[in-house]
Amino acid sequence: MEENNYKELIECYGFLFEPELIAEIKQLGTYRSIAANKVIMDYGEKIDSMPLLLSGAIKILRQDSNGDELALYYLERGDTCSMTVTCCLNEKNSTIRAISETDVVFIAIPAENNKRWIQKYDGWLKFVFDNYTHRFSELLNSVDELAFENMQVRIQKYLKSQVLIKKSTLLEISHQDIAYDMHSSRVVISRLLKKLEKKKIVRLKRNKIELLEL
């Protein structure tokens, strides 16, 4: 790992991990840079590494028996993928699809180190379980939204989260993209976005949505 990449690792994870673990990551990790909208991991693939995200955002998707996809969560700086870690522990192929939502930079850690590090380093054990807890909380919030909130409120929350992820109020996203992520239809999403536009909450453009009210 080059010195500049090592500095990024220290800035992002140095306060979480023991010096000995940081040294192992420096020795074993591979620095990777991927452009936006690329499939990083797909369903059924053999998992040979775990990501430690340094910058950007990765969208994690799950597919149902009908082939429909639902966005489970997003990974950002300081995260790893809990689903990937679970598959590594159980030596199973991927059950998710990971797509770079923006340009991303991460360190890929060989999967065989996961079990050893959980036993050897308290920092890694806490990191893994903190990620599990955070993702479980996100999934519970998603269930609550599906059960108790109407679709218009959910769309507004979705758009706000996209603004935070992409650090811009002008989102390059289509109505179909939102429908995929929210497990809905394009027609429903388009109708509700039109209502939000009339309320001057958003401004609609071709394959772009500007959020006017946060």
Question: In words, what does this structure look like?
Answer:
It is a single chain. With 214 residues, the chain is of the alpha+beta class. The protein folds into two domains: 3-146, Jelly Rolls (Sandwich); 149-211, Winged helix-like DNA-binding domain superfamily/Winged helix DNA-binding domain (Arc Repressor Mutant, subunit A), CATH 1.10.10. The chain contains eight helices and ten strands. A hairpin with a 5-residue loop joins strand 4 and strand 5. Helix 7 (175-182) packs across helix 8 (186-198). The mean pLDDT is 88.
User: How many structural domains?
Assistant: 2
Based on the coordinates given, report the CATH architecture of the largest domain.
Sandwich
What's the pLDDT, averaged over the residues? 88
Overall helicity: 40-55%
CATH topology of the largest domain: Jelly Rolls
Shape: elongated
Q: What is the H-and-E element order?
A: HHEEEEEHEEHHHEHHEE
Tell me how many strands there are.
10
Kindly name the structural category.
Answer: alpha+beta
The span between the termini is 40 Å
Output the CATH homologous superfamily of the largest domain: Jelly Rolls
Ranges where pLDDT stays below 50 over 5 or more residues in a row are none
Biggest sheet, open or closed, and with what strands and sense? 4 strands, antiparallel
Name of the top-level CATH class of the largest domain:
Mainly Beta
Binned strand content: 15-25%
Evaluate the radius of gyration: 19 Å
Number of DSSP helices? 8
Output the strand order for the largest sheet: 2-6-4-5
